[in-house]
Amino acid sequence: MSESIVAYRYAKALIDLANQQGVVNEVNKDMLFFETICEENPSFVAVMANPIVRHDKKLGILKKIFENNVNSVTFSIFSVLTKKNREKLIYPIAKEFQKLYNLQTGVQIVEISSSVALTDAQKAQFSKLVSEAINKQVKIQESVDESLIGGYVLKVGDTQIDTSVKKKLNELKLALA
Question: The whole model's pTM is what?
């Protein structure tokens, strides 16, 4: 079974348990915290994925870092995963949990790539326009891609709107060829 399917199943079980316990917002904060730890410390992710490191050592590391800093429901998934030798799935589970949480709360992730950083006013305008178009709350993830030259690339789910100068130059190049 693929890693993403397994991660989805664990994330689904975690969000169901968090909903039953009435702590879904706390677990979401914990998962965001865990994602931040993983993104800032690639060596942590490497240790969790390393089959040479014993599972009790991995659980010990998780206890030291997270046991007193996260909800007991969140920590329970860490315990289950170490017992089942699936510690390498913790980060993918956190990602899948975010997707499920956003779906449950009606939040749509919108990715915007532009050649320069957007101002707060531009972000607010994008947020307003997209929110009105899809009737959902919007969370913007911005990235800077200087190769776009100008304009932007907007991704909402599976839809992409590309108004970049790079794309227009490529279209012109194809038309002239």
Answer: 0.81
